[in-house]
Amino acid sequence: MIYFDNSATTVPYPEALRTYQEVATKIFGNPSSLHQLGTSATRILEASRKQVADLIGKSADEIFFTSGGTEGDNWVIKGVAFEKEPYGKHIIVSDIEHPAVKESAKWLSEHGFEVSYAPVNEQGFVDVEALAGLLRPDTILVSVMAVNNEIGSIQPIQAISDILADEPTISFHVDAVQAIGKIPVSAYLTDRVDFATFSGHKFHAVRGVGFVYKKAGKKITPLLTGGGQEKDFRSTTENVAGIASMAKALRLVTDKEAFSLPKIAKMKKIIFDELAKYEDITIFSGEGEDFAPNILTFGIKGVRGEVIVHAFEEHQIYISTTSACSSKAGKPAGTLISMGVPTKLAQTAVRISLDDDNDMGQVEQFLTIFKQVYAKTQKVR
After folding, report:
1. What backbone phi and psi angles, to 5 degrees, belong to 364?
2. pLDDT at res. 136
């Protein structure tokens, strides 16, 4: 079995699973309880918070645990809008954001807010000048992802930060779900970023846990009210075992970056160079430092992406049709449409997303099977 769908989810590290099991079975108390089991759970919770903060270069009081990227995006987009509503009702998101951001923005537009969408160029990068032109006196929030989940384009967060440097009243949110463990933290957590969202299962933690970075002093309205956990910002009993597992996974993936990322980039290049030899294959992801090292999206002319996915599945090779959160809807990749790719061509797109768990032998096997799959498509087109 070859798993090339790591942008959809990753296999939990064995160490992270062991941490989860140990905490879940031995330190199962509610952190809000006053007895020893509760205080032990609190110690694990806060130690995990500090570890996560240290690994991304922030303070522990700036880290808030969630159930994952979708909750985090919803909280920041809606929470900032609600908090700043007295000062303005205009927000800006890029046209290639994950549905968790775009649907949150759409919801706000149905509840009295105005949303502007910053366009991207033909390579899938936000047009910084166009975004700057959208800024208004009543703009309260800008949200741009760090790494695009469909083609891997690394967005110009520093350039946007520079534009917003003179706009202190505008909150800046970065969806960093696809970035952590794939590009340097400094590339997306600039000093100007006020909020960032992360999801544990994208970096080998268990599902159902994530975190939000909230810069100290920045205000946001909570979405969940109740018992006052997470400093009154997210009321619900904390998933201590999941949080501890996530902290462990983040430490492991961070420790491996120095040697894992060059390895992943090399595997991508080998596949890229082979696919580039075919005239009727369109490669939507680029090479080099402007693209994440793990994501490669391509299409075979005249063949829908789901056909290719299932053809590889017959050989126990697992890839996807771009975003896992949208693929079952049968829609073409929204990022490609925003880039100006014709709908019919966008419908051919499939995504390979690599990880340190993969190796060169798997790459060679993938390319061998690819030749067989490609040959079959020639017969039916």
Report:
1. -65, -40
2. 98
